[in-house]
Write a structure and sequence with these properties.
Blueprint: E1 2-7, E2 12-19, E3 23-31, H1 33-39, H2 44-64, E4 92-98, H3 102-119, E5 123-127, H4 128-133, E6 153-158, E7 163-170, E8 173-179, H5 185-195, H6 202-211, H7 239-254, H8 260-288, E9 293-297, H9 304-316, E10 320-322, H10 334-342
Helix pairs in contact: 2-3, 5-6, 5-7, 5-8, 6-8, 8-9
This protein binds 5'-O-[(R)-(carboxyoxy)(hydroxy)phosphoryl]adenosine and zinc ion.
Zinc ion binds next to helix 4.
Length: 365
């Protein structure tokens, strides 16, 4: 089955075609991140306006870039949308319905409903958080020990808006064990980057600064707190970390010692603190529930230090570790199509609506 996925929950516009939930035939993402760098964060109206501009070109590009073996190129869609013979290529449409920014979500949802109605295809609503998990079923995975994640599994979702730990007993069988009580891990990276004068998004900027420290001894001159690392639950709290960082920065500025080297050192300290907490709690959950796999997902899962810590710890505890390819950690539509395949539950298109506040209560959206 080939599913056209559409993702517009935030500042990325994504369209992808995935076969049987695993094989990516096309995956196009346009990002309005450049615009948000200027403002140091996302302005919802700006993101929504960019979604409107990008959605049709992105879907067109995905359909024009289909890699189909054994299909005569002449039958592939090309040119204008009204000349597409989609019946041959697409069996269903999947769309992110929430959580996310209402203006952005509406663009994807209304486009998907229109296409489903015109093309006479089933439409599957997808929860954005759950779709992140399904990036683990797609594409090449350098840290994979097995070809497919096996259940039960512990899932960590760490993105700009969410940090959640889940027990996954099968497709559609998810139980939330805990999550952040305040800032998400990605949000913490973004806010700390801002304090350090680095660009948006903060995660990659902090990771890049930290790698500039060549000598190990230069690292970790400043030890930042590991919030809630010892707590007897699976919750997180990251807001105190940025306050601790701000205190350090103000102190260094007071004695004129805030320079390139200290920015690199503090970046490394932030990265170590956030990744330590995420790894420690996830591993503890994996031990408690005796799982076969650990799956990480969301934008923060692209972090190299986090991936390496997980790789080392999970092999120590003999759990299979899965991380999506880095380009599939951040928002994309391939994961939406994969989630729809494994949780196939179409709804009549008039019933599909954007739900900005959607959480884990309705796991299939
Ligand atoms: O999943 P995502 O693309 O969007 C949301 O659904 O929120 O995640 C974006 C978040 C941002 O906070 C960004 O700073 C973080 O993921 N991020 C990273 C890295 N790449 C993106 N954090 C740490 N290291 C990275 N390499
Ligand atoms: Zn996301």
């Amino acid at each position: 089955m080939r599913i056209l996925g559409i993702e517009t929950s935030c500042d990325e516009t994504g369209a992808a075609i995935v076969e049987d939930g695993t094989k990516v035939l096309a995956n196009i993402v346009a990002s309005s991140q450049e615009l948000h760098i200027k403002t140091g964060g996302i302005i919802p109206e700006v993101a929504a306006r960019e979604q409107i501009k990008c959605i049709i070109p992105v879907i067109e590009e995905a359909l024009q870039n289909l890699h189909l073996e054994g299909v005569d190129k002449r039958h592939l869609p090309g040119g204008r949308m009204d000349s597409w013979k989609v019946d041959r290529f697409i069996d269903a449409i999947a769309v992110t319905v929430g959580p996310g920014l209402i203006g952005s979500l509406l663009v994807g949802v209304e486009t998907a409903k229109t296409l489903a109605s015109i093309w006479g295809k089933p439409i599957i609503p997808v929860n954005h958080l759950i779709s992140h998990i399904y990036a683990n079923w797609l594409g090449p995975k350098p840290y994979t020990l097995n070809p497919k994640p096996s259940f039960p599994a512990i899932v960590l979702i760490a993105s700009g808006g969410h940090t959640d730990l889940l027990l996954m007993k099968g497709h559609g069988k998810l139980r939330r064990l805990g999550g952040t009580r305040d800032d998400a891990a990605g949000e913490c990276f973004d806010k700390c980057a801002r304090i350090l004068g680095l660009s948006f998004p903060g995660g990659p900027a902090i990771a890049a600064e930290a790698t500039k420290l060549k000598v190990k001894s230069e690292k970790l001159k400043v030890k930042l707190p590991r919030p809630m690392i010892e707590s007897d639950n699976f919750d997180f709290s990251f807001s105190g970390l940025k306050t601790a960082l701000l205190r350090e920065v103000n102190q260094l500025k007071g004695v004129q010692q805030f320079n390139n080297l200290t920015v690199q050192q503090l970046s490394s300290s932030v990265q170590e603190a956030i990744t330590d907490v995420l790894v420690e709690k996830t591993i503890r959950a994996a031990q408690k529930y005796q799982v076969k796999s650990i799956l990480i997902s969301g934008g923060v899962a692209a972090n190299d230090v986090l991936r390496e810590k997980f790789r080392v710890q999970s092999s120590e505890f003999r759990v299979n570790f899965f991380a999506p390819a880095k380009n599939l950690c951040t928002d994309n539509a391939a994961m939406v199509a994969a989630a729809a395949f494994f949780n196939y539950s179409p709804k009549p298109w008039p019933k599909i609506q954007a739900h900005p506040e959607l959480f884990f209560t309705n796991l299939r959206g």
